[in-house]
Amino acid sequence: SVFIVSSEEKEISLVVMSNADLGRPRGCSFSKTVKLALATGLKRCPAEVGPQLRQQYPDQPYDERLLIAMEPIVDSGDRGDSRMFCVGYGDGWVHASKGRWLSGMISHSDFHWGGTELFVFCK
Q1: Could you say which of 6, 26, 31, 45 is the most buried, measured as most Cβ atoms within 10 Å of its Cβ?
Q2: pLDDT attached to residue 96
Q3: What does the alpha-carbon distance between residue 33 and residue 96 come to, in Å, rounded to a whole number?
Q4: pLDDT given for residue 59 in this prediction
């Protein structure tokens, strides 16, 4: 898929939900997470929410990572993995990253995420 940035500035209301908040304390697949959130009236985020959230969230708590629930972007690697943006702060989660970071996390529809993982949706 292609990552397109909006040509005009928009204000978007974001909601952070865990799989436990969505009724799955033991976690579930990414596709199930999205399905449960959509059933509550939430929406997937535009991809640009990831980079914008990283810029606009300088006081993110240490050890927090937020997975952006978005249409996946296919990476350019040999396997062509589907990825979503992840906004984090901490040590060692992404290739020994330290501090505040933005990365692409696997978002295959059947990839299992734990109950405490935090996903960002649009209201």
Answers
A1: 45
A2: 56
A3: 27
A4: 95
SS3 assignment, position 119: strand
* DSSP strand pairing (73-74 vs 28-29): unpaired
Q: What does 63-88 look like in DSSP terms, one character per residue?
A: TEEEEE-B--EE-SSTT--EEEEEEE
- Structure token pair of residue 17: 């939900």
Mean pLDDT score across all residues of the chain: 89
pLDDT tens for each residue of 11-23: 999 999 999 999 9
Residue 111 exposed, middle or buried by CB count within 10 Å (0-12, 13-18, 19+): middle
Take residue 26 and report the two structure tokens written for it: 């033991």
- Is the entire prediction scored with pTM above 0.70? yes
pLDDT of residue 46: 94
Residue 26: CB atoms within 10 Å: 9
Q: Which two tokens stand for residue 52?
A: 């914008």
Residue 92: both structure tokens together? 């060692």
